[in-house]
Here is the input.
Amino acid sequence: GAGVSQSPRYKVTKRGQDVALRCDPISGHVSLYWYRQALGQGPEFLTYFNYEAQQDKSGLPNDRFSAERPEGSISTLTIQRTEQRDSAMYRCASSFQSVFGVQYFGPGTRLTVT
Amino acid sequence: AQKITQTQPGMFVQEKEAVTLDCTYDTSDQSYGLFWYKQPSSGEMIFLIYQGSYDEQNATEGRYSLNFQKARKSANLVISASQLGDSAMYFCAMRPDNAGGTSYGKLTFGQGTILTVHP
Here is the structure.
């Protein structure tokens, strides 16, 4: 496809369950980013990759959150033992390069933890 | 650390009029990029315009222009000839452009401004 795609678009899960959110970046984009956006606020950085290497994970809230990009393309953000406070929009973005490259965002995954 | 401040929670403009959305920033980086994104009610994040800190001319993209005043640390978005479809949330963001640092790809966003265009 032409843009960044994310799946699922909506996810409802029970507290304590694990969830995996997928991001498929624009073809050829080296850098991939994960952000979390609370309602009515700007996105907050979680982590990013150049190719398959995780360059910065300083924004991951705690060790229940992890991300991988094993082949330098598709990425998965995993949240273990979900809590209600994890409910948010999770957005993925990709750019051709990390320095000077524009980040293009996917449609997001709306996660609701009940 | 970087900080973006958008002081206007909401703005109203008449169709076909121009509107300015304010953005101020704070950073210790020498080289950085400034961005504006649009988020309509559908929820997508749409890139509008980019300004590099060393660019001497203000960026323009169609009806969008970025009024960059480096000394004042401001990067206001100007939308000319507003259209009903411009009604959305607008986010200002910045990114350090110092290659070699671990966080040079990271965008920091402001709180956003909701723009409503009246017919």
